[in-house]
Amino acid sequence: MPNSLINIAELPTITDRRGCLTFAQFPDNIPFSVSRVYFIYKTDNDSPRGFHAHRELQQLMIAISGSFEVTLDDGQSREKVILTNPTQALLIDRMIWREMHNFSQDAICLVLASMPYDESDYIRNYDEFLTVVKEVRQ
Ligand code: T46
User: Fold this and answer.
1) Is 17's pLDDT higher than 70?
2) Separation of CA 124 and ligand 1 centre (Å)
3) pLDDT per position as a tens digit, 62-99
4) Best mutation site among 44, 109, 117 for ligand 1 pocket (most ligand atoms within 8 Å of CB)
5) Confidence at 18, pLDDT banded by 50, 70, 90
6) Catalytic status, residue 101
7) Per residue, what are the HEC states of the chain?
8) Which ligand 1 atom is at minimum distance from the Cα of 109?
C-alpha cells in the first residue's frame, strides 16, 4: 500500500527441530541504534494503552506472544493493524499517534526504542498532537 502508516518488517527466523529463533539487528532490521528495551504484558483486554505520540522517538514493536491491535495516526489518516506473529516488527516513526487495543490474554509486546525514556518527548493530548504535527510539516 503506497504511503501506508503500517510499516512491517519480516524478521529473519531460523527454524529447526528445537524450535524457532527470530532475530533483529541494526541496521538490517532495526533502522536505529537501540537505547532502550521494554515489554508490556499481563495486559487487560479492556484496558487500551498508548494514546500519545513521540516528538523524536522511533520504535519497533513486536508481538512476541499473543496478539493485539495497533492504531497509527499521522494527523491526516488512521490505520489499524493486528500484530499476531513474533516474526513481524512494526516500525513506529516519530510524530505518529498510537493506540493499542484488544490484547489477547497471552500478549507480550516487546518494544525496541531509539532513545532513553523521556516524558518530555511524549505528546499525550490528541489536539496538541494535531497542532504540533501541522507545525512540523510546514
Ligand atoms: C509507547 C507504547 C507502545 C518508564 O518509566 N520508562 C519507560 O521506558 C516507559 C516505556 C514507561 N515508563 C513509565 C511512564 C509511565 O509512568 O511507565 C508508565 C506507563 O507508561 P505509559 O502510560 O506511557 O505506557 P503505554 O503502554 O501507554 O505506552 C508505552 C510507552 O510509554 C510508549 O512510548 O509507544 O508503550
Assistant:
1) yes
2) 11
3) 999 999 999 999 999 999 999 999 999 999 999 999 99
4) 117
5) very high
6) no
7) CCCCCCEEEECCEEEECCEEEECCCCCCCCCCCCCEEEEECCCCCCCCEEEEEECCCCEEEEEEECCEEEEEECCCCEEEEEECCCCEEEEECCCCEEEEECCCCCCEEEEEECCCCCHHHEECCHHHHHHHHHHHHC
8) 3
Task: Specify the pLDDT at position 46.
Answer: 87
d(CA 113, CA 68): 19
State the catalytic residue, choosing from 52, 55, 94, 101: 52
Put simply, whether the predicted model's pTM sits higher than 0.90 gets the answer yes
> CB of 55 within 8 A of CB of 133?
no
